Amino acid sequence: MSKTIEIKIPDIGGFDDVPVIEVMVKPGDAVQAEDSLLTLESDKATMDVPSPAAGTIKSVKVKVGDKIMEVVLTDIGPKVVASTRLAASVLPNASLLFPGGVVQNMLGNTFVSLFPQAGQTFQVRIPDLDAYRVIDARYDAGAKGGVLMVVGRTPKGIFDRLVFRFDGMFQTYDVRKVEDIGTPQGLNFVVTDAGMCICMDEDDKLELTSVNMGSSSVKTITDKMLGGDLRLFKRGGQVFMSRGDKVFSMRMR
Questions:
Q1: Sign of the alpha-carbon torsion through 216, 222, 226, 229
Q2: Distance of alpha carbon 90 from alpha carbon 175, whole angstroms
């Protein structure tokens, strides 16, 4: 018996249609589940549309240049028919899993899902990231909403570091941008239970900021022992630094 499988995502707004830039199958091709059928492209990202089932392509009703927002895959016995109609679409391959969360680009609209603690998830729409390709990200819950740091690449190939702070319910945020950080070396920071974000910055300095939204104070600490290979971590509410097999404790005065 025939059945129709519709692939959709929630309404993301701002896009009336999305062009097809590549069709990867033709009638008679055998496909497996998750094989890519075609590629869609927005001005910010591309996505592959996968087959939800194994079978043989009976017909392909789209071509390069068509503009669509829904892919309908019809399973007719061993046959799979790919067609389209105007609706919504998804970016299954435009997600980046990082410590503490997931960043997703949905046709140029960036959403971040954060996991402050087990069993708790908040999804936040972050327009400040729309113009970037996210290279690296990390979230540390710490206290009072925690801190999300993101390294993004601009269309000109410049890397910026963005620091986001949230209210306790993740309804609002503020952002501080550190522009042109050079070649990314990885995000190295912790958020203390007392509400302090401690970050090893791109110049091998310790950067101290509050997790409270609206606070503009940024303090830096320089020391000859600091360097990019020194890693920050927390244990039992205390902040430590490690280099090789050596561990150093940190005390704030």
A1: positive
A2: 27
Q: In 3D, which of 142, 148, 155, 144 has the Cα closest to residue 124?
A: 148
pLDDT tens column, 152-197 = 999 999 999 999 999 888 989 999 999 999 998 889 999 988 888 9
- pLDDT tens digits, residue range 26-58? 888 887 766 777 776 655 556 667 676 677 777
Residue 72: strand pairing partners: 6, 83
Six-digit token pair at 100?
């503490």
**CA pair distance 250, 66, nearest whole angstrom:** 59
Q: Which long-range contacts (CB under 8 A, 24 or more apart) does 109-112 make?
A: 109/12, 109/13, 109/14, 110/134, 112/137, 112/148
The closest of 16, 20, 3 to 60, measured between CA atoms, is: 20
Contacts of residues 216-221 at CB distance under 8 Å and 24 or more positions apart, as own/partner, are 218/176
| CATH architecture of the domain covering 3-84 | Beta Barrel (2.40)
Tell me the Ramachandran region of residue 112: left when phi exceeds 0, alpha when psi lies from -120 to 50, beta otherwise. beta
pTM across the whole model? 0.62
**Each residue's pLDDT tens digit, 65-111:** 776 544 444 444 554 444 444 333 434 446 788 888 888 877 778 88
